[in-house]
Every structure is written in C-alpha cells, then in structure tokens.
Amino acid sequence: MNRSTEIVQKPSVCPHDCPSVCALDVEVVGGARIGRIRGAPEQTYTSGVICAKVARYAERIHHPDRLTQPLLRVGPKGSGQFAAIGWDEALDRVAEAFLATERRRGPESVWPYFYAGTMGLVMRDGIERLTHAKRYSRFYGTICVGVAWPGWVAGAGKLAGADPREMAKSDCVVIWGTNAVATQVNVMTHAVRARKERGAKIVAVDVYETETMRQADLALKVRPGTDGALACAVMHVCFRDGYADRDYLARFTDAPGELEAHLSTRDPAWAAAITGLDVAEIEAFAALVGRTKRTFFRLGYGFSRQRNGAANMHAALCIPAVTGAWAHEGGGAFHSNSGIFTLKKTMIEGLDVRDSRVRRLDQSLVGAVLTGEPEALKHGPPVEAMLIQNTNPLAVAPNQGKVRRGFSRDDLFVCVHEQFMTDTARYADVVLPATMFLEHDDLYTAGGNQHLQFAPKAIEPPPGCRSNHEVVCALADRLGARHPAFAMSPREIIDWTLRQSGYGDLARLETERWLDCQPPFEDAHFLNGFGFPDGKFRFKPDWTRTPLANDGLRGAWRDMPRLPDHWAVNEAPDDRRPFKLATSPARNFLNSSFTETATSRLRERRPELLVNPEDAAGLGVGDGDLIEIGNDRGRTRLHARLFAGASPGVMVSEGIWPPSAFLDGWGINALVGDDSVAPFGGVAFHDVAIWARRA
To answer: What is d(CA 543, CA 154) in angstroms, rounded to the nearest whole number?
Structure first.
C-alpha cells in the first residue's frame, strides 16, 4: 500500500463547547491528514452519531487560512495589518509587555482571558496556572452557565441528574429550551429511540419553530422569558387533577403545601395570557406529563438566557418533583453532569498557588472592564495587558460596542493565541498560531453525559503552530512563574490528575478510551436525598446560599421569587422598542467556531433575521430585504427572512456570525446587554428589546 494514502483509524474526542463531548473515530490518511470522522459506536451516549460540522472537520483542520506563524501588529488596532515574526521574538514581546505592566500597575493589571473554544481540561484551563502563579487578575466565567446552573442547583442541591441515556427508556421526553437537533444531536438519538421502541411522546418547548420543534409530537412555542409561567400552570393542573405524587412530595420536598397554595391562582388561563399558548395546549401538556410517570425533562441552556432565567430553570425543574417522576427509570430531569467527576485539578490549574484575595473579573463584563468601569474592575487598577486563549470576545461577548472601545485602547496590550484571524485577533498586538484538538493530547469530562475521556494526539500540527500548554509554559519561564506543572507534559499532567482523583492512570484510560462515571440510579435520581443537608428538594430556594461556586450576588437577586413563578423582570418591549430579539445557535456553527469553513458558511448563507410575515408587512419588509435593528446599545443591518415559525413580535438571529460578516461591521451582540443577571451573573442573550425598520 502507498504510505501516502494509507488510512489508519485513531480515537479522539470532540473538543467543542457542546454538552455531548462525542467520542470520535478519526481517519488519518498517510499519517498526516484527517479523513472522515465518525462517532464511536461503542460509546453508549455518542452511540455512533455526531453532528455534520464535526464529521467534516478535515475542512477546518486543513483550512488554507489557518494561522501558522506568529504575527506582530504594524497598523491600527482592528486593521488586520500584521508582519510575521519568530516565536522567540513573539514570546519575548509578550513577556516584556506583561512585566512592564506589573511594574507599572501591579500584577492585577494583567488579565488572562479564556473560555470554551476547547473543552479539553489541560488546553482550556492551563492558563489558570499562569494566572495563579503570577497573581494576575483571576477569571470568573459567566457567559454560558452563569444563569442556568444556579437555577438547577437552587432546587436539586448539586449539578447532576438522571442518566441521560435513560431518555431511551422514557415514555415522554420533554426537550425544554434547547434546539437539540442543531446543538446536541445525541439528545435526539435517545429521544427518538424511545419513540420508536416505546411509543414515547416528544415534547419541545421553545420561543420559535426550530427543527426540534418540528420533530416533536407536541410543540409549545412560548413568548421569550415566560417558561416559569408555563411550569407553574403545569404544576397547578397536576395538583388540581390528582397527578401530584403526594407520598413523594412528603418524603422528598421541602414545602409541598405552600407550593400548592401558591399555585392555586396560577392556572392555565393565567399562563396562557403570559406565554401566548392556548389554554388547551397547556392542559394537554400538563395531563401528558402528569399521567406519564416516566417523563424525562431534558432542560437546556437557551431558556435560561433571560434576566429571569435562573427562576425559569428552577420552575421547570420543580415539575418532576411534583409528579414524582424522579422515582422512575426514564423519569426525572437532566441538565448537566458537570458535578459528578470531582477531578483534582491542582496540576492543571495551579490551585495550590491560588490566592483568593486576588480579584476575579467577570468574563461577561469584558467591555466594562476594559473601558474602566470601577464596579467591573472591583475598584482596582485598570487592565493593561491580556493573554486570550480559546475565545473570541469581540464576537461573542455582550454589548459589542463597549467591548470594541475597550480593545481599541492604545494603552492595552493584547496577545491572542488562535487558530484563525478572528475579530479579536485583529485587535491584538501579537497573534500566536494555535494547534487544534487532533494535534495535541487532552482530557475531557462531559456535561451532557457521564464519560471521562482521553484524546491522544493524532497528527502533527502545521509547522509553526503551538499548543496552549506550550505557550503557557514558555511564557511562565520568561515571566518567572513557578509551578511543577510548567515542567510537565500534557500526558504527565493527565496521568497525575487521574491518579490523584482515583481514576487509575493514563495507561488505563488510553486503553479503555473512556470511563463511565454515572452514579448509581438511587444517587442520580436523588432517591438517597437531594444535595442539601436535609435531603429535600427546594421549592423554596435560598438564592443567597445556593451551593454553587460564585463571585457574589448580582443583578436583581433581592427580587427573585421565593416559590416558582413568572418573574416579570425582563427587558419589556415598548413603543420605542416593540420587538423581542433572540440570538439563537445556528446548526452549522458552534458559537464563533466553524464560521470560517466554506461548507458551514454556504449552508448558513449570510446573517439573517427571522421575521414573522405579519411583522414584515407592518414594516414594509419583503423576503430578502435589508432590515435594520437596534436599541440604545447599538444597531446593525442584515437580511430579513420571512418565517411564520417566529411569533409576531419576536425576531430571531441564528448564529454568532463574525461582526465582519455584517454589512456595517457590527455583529448581533452589539444589541445584547451586559448587565449582570441574578443571582450570580451571566448574560441575557435572548432577552433583548429592539426596534426594526426597513433599511
């Protein structure tokens, strides 16, 4: 066989910011290039199924526009004018800038900034080790889970839930606030299996007609931010019509009597006026989940991205506690298993040198931090230097106008370590080329399932690309940062982490590919008690003491409802801004990743706004016309797509297109507020009031 065409299959793990964390079988062609990528059929959650964008990953990893050499800015910030330099010069320049900033303003004026461009623990979180060793400003990640997780943990007491594979054993699967067809296809794998094998019903709850809604047996299209009202009405019917499991309530919940009395006025007519649903739809949904004890609630992130999002998540989570669905296999609820792994991440993150007195700056407030707002800076020194890995804040962060103003500062030094010339990289002083997941070793936990997985390096990176770990260690050496892990390889760090966490060693995990860490049924279903000292589920959450790591109370936390309710705190439409905007995921992008690949861009076409035909007629806008939308934060223009699946008064922009893809250079997040959401911070991406007019 010709060695240049020989195909060898190698194991890997999808690194992207998706709950599925799919196990992959990867074709390596000629020892150097990636061929086809498939889901590993033996892994019981991935079950051989992966999304199309990852299946065509060869298009991304071998993209001709990949960054392959360090670059030095030679033009104005944002101009994209760079000159190639060597790695030693690039790293020396970054280190010199950081050391000069430390001398001038102190170490807290340096802010390493990262997120979930890779979910591999070594490559994502290793930057924390540099932060802690140098006493740089710490990073508080809120942009994704900051609202959803408090809502779940306020009720359940810990971030865990029923085995997600149990969806295949359910008689009813409720997919609430997530477009699983587009964003976590494996949810549909198990839900559809239940429908085929058990005749299960699939219910979808969302704010517009998604592909998941179209595949559901019952699709409930609610007004944005009204999920709490729907949940209350469902529980009202369950109490009213005898579907509530009173034995379960008495044994496992804190205040069933108070809840029943509270819900006595939250009937379907009340909820219909708030949600926009028909009373009959609410009654049918309540009867279905009330009669069907094996009902599995798969609660997503989308419906939490409102100012009342944590309260909505908690309200939806209360339903299976009322019906007693937790007591049944195939019943209960699931949001994330992130709390089950309990890895000791000392070597990855440098936790042994972390100083809790050093300020934590909020990721979502990056614009406020960089424009010098005292509250965002914790009344400390300005940020004058940044190292950015695994994220693209000039595209994904809220209040894009403020973010851009911050990154435009002449006195701000920014190093971006990236795979492509993103909008953020264009504002950098130094750009460093990064590896992709098949070009380095890493360890992965899953949010959407229960597997701990190792992904070994499959191919060599392009000459000139270096991993996050290599960059962090090289900078640590130049900056005088000390920690044992700076002298360790990723494999050594992974082996240490596994051994110290009780998972054996790397040799075992590499042989087995993944470890199934699913807790026993009784624990996963909280039949041994929920995660509070008394073991009771909390209908009456104490939002100030929710057992979740946070950086203090934020937003309108004092006004949060004491029992499940519709919390009317959202950005309300008015005469000046009569429409609500949802910034929902696109099927062929993942946050700002894949926006550079030709097939994904071809399938998504261009930035578009889904507009109900009734609204379009009122604005004098036809299909394909330019439409301008805006509010006090910013404005942008994009093409209208008439879509009856969007409710009147609700407009939807799918995907985080790069700002440079918009006609005026302003992305959709120019319209999104950066005010902190209760109780612990986060962003209300789907809670935006706007005006609209024909452009």
So the answer is: 7
The tokens describing 520, both together, are 């026993």
Token pair in block for residue 58: 């060869």
Indicate where the chain has its CATH 3.40.228.10 domain(s): 147-338+541-559
Which amino acid belongs to residue 230?
Answer: L
Name the one residue in this structure whose structure tokens are 């024909």.
Answer: 694
Nearest to 567 by CA among 154, 183, 287, 145: 154
Q: What is the pLDDT of residue 4?
A: 75
Choose among 47, 51, 37: nearest CA to 438: 37
Q: What are phi and psi of 493, to 5 degrees?
A: -65, -45
Tally the residues of the chain. 695
Residue 285 CA to residue 283 CA, distance in Å, equals 6
**Residue 622 in 3-state DSSP?**
coil
Q: How far apart are CA 294 and CA 314, in angstroms?
A: 20
Using N-to-C axis directions, what is the helix angle for 148-156 and 309-323, rounded to 10°? Answer: 30
CA-to-CA dists, residue 353 to 133, 389, 476, 483, angstroms: 6, 21, 14, 8
d(CA 241, CA 313): 24
CA dihedral 401, 404, 409, 415 (to 10 degrees): 160
Single-letter residue type at 340: I
Q: Taking each helix axis as running N to C, give the angle between helix 87-105 and helix 468-479, from 0 to 180 degrees, rounded to the nearest 10.
A: 50
Place of tokens 């587009």: 182
Sequence ranges of the chain with CATH classification 2.40.40.20? 579-694
Cα(206)–Cα(346) distance, integer angstroms: 40
Mean pLDDT by 10 residues, the chain (695 residues): 83 95 97 96 96 96 98 97 98 98 98 96 98 98 96 98 98 97 94 98 98 97 98 98 98 98 98 98 98 98 97 98 98 97 98 98 98 98 98 98 98 98 98 98 97 98 97 98 98 98 98 97 98 98 95 97 98 97 94 93 96 98 98 98 98 96 96 98 97 96
CATH architecture of 147-338+541-559: 3-Layer(aba) Sandwich (3.40)
Domain with CATH 2.20.25.90 in the chain: 7-62
Burial class (CB in 10 A: 0-12, 13-18, 19+), 170: buried
Handedness of CA 465, 467, 468, 471 (dihedral sign): negative
Collapsing DSSP states into helix, strand and coil, what is residue 399?
coil
Class of domain 7-62: mainly beta
Residue 535, Ramachandran bin (φ over 0: left; ψ between -120 and 50: alpha; else beta): left
Other Cβ atoms less than 10 A from the Cβ of 617: the count is 12
- For domain 579-694, which CATH number applies: 2.40.40.20, 2.60.40.10, 3.20.20.190, 3.30.460.30? 2.40.40.20
User: What torsion, rounded to 10 degrees, do the Cα atoms 185, 191, 195, 197 define?
Assistant: 100
- Return phi, psi of residue 623, to 5°: -60, 125
Q: Which residues pair with 430 in a beta bridge?
A: 72, 415
Q: Which helix (H) or strand (E) holds 584?
A: strand 579-584
Of residues 20, 131, 124, the one with CA closest to residue 442 = 124
Residue 307 to residue 675: CA distance in whole angstroms: 9
